[in-house]
Amino acid sequence: LCSDISPLLKDPAAFRTLIDLLEDHLRASFPQIDFIAGLDSRGFLIGPPLAQRLGIGFVLIRKKGKLPGPTESVSYALEYGKAELEIQSDAVEPGQKVVIVDDLLATGGTMCAACELMKRLKAEVLECLVIIELKLLKGSEKLKSVPFYSLLQYD
Predict the structure, then answer these.
(1) Residue 3 binned pLDDT confidence (cut-offs 50, 70, 90)
(2) Could you write out the DSSP letters of every residue in the chain?
(3) Does domain 31-153 have CATH number 1.25.40.10?
(4) In the chain, domain spans
(5) Is 93 one of the annotated active-site residues of the chain?
(6) Is the pTM higher than 0.90?
(7) Does the annotation mark 42 as catalytic?
(8) Among 42, 62, 86, 127, which one carries the catalytic annotation?
């Protein structure tokens, strides 16, 4: 299946190449990034190695109820109901520059919610970055003014 990153994760050379490509893209695009923010849960697989390569921190954006301490949360619509995302209130400072990462962009609801969380913390979202974009679902159109990058696109 074209939207499953499991085979990529099983192959160390392929995974290293993926991180190389994403690192090259970010270094070429942004002179300064403060944090990589990863979406629950596959963004947690891509984000930390990418943040390590760039010498920056990684922050978690999780499903509601998973993070300790004070949090900001936002609810968003899914095809089959509602969901909520959270970030720790002190995860980023106002004005800090963040790239949000995930494995896949489909309808864009989760990524939009993540952008909203960053907006509430007054961080600057430099880009939303995914490995795979399902173009047919038009998720990137929902991101409006936020720059978006996908490594692979499928119709």
Answers:
(1) confident
(2) -TT--HHHHH-HHHHHHHHHHHHHHHHHH-S---EEEEETTTHHHHHHHHHHHHT-EEEEEEETT-S-SSEEEEEEEETTEEEEEEEETTSS-TT-EEEEEEEEESSSHHHHHHHHHHHHTT-EEEEEEEEEEEGGGTHHHHTTTS-EEEEEEE-
(3) no
(4) 31-153
(5) no
(6) yes
(7) yes
(8) 42
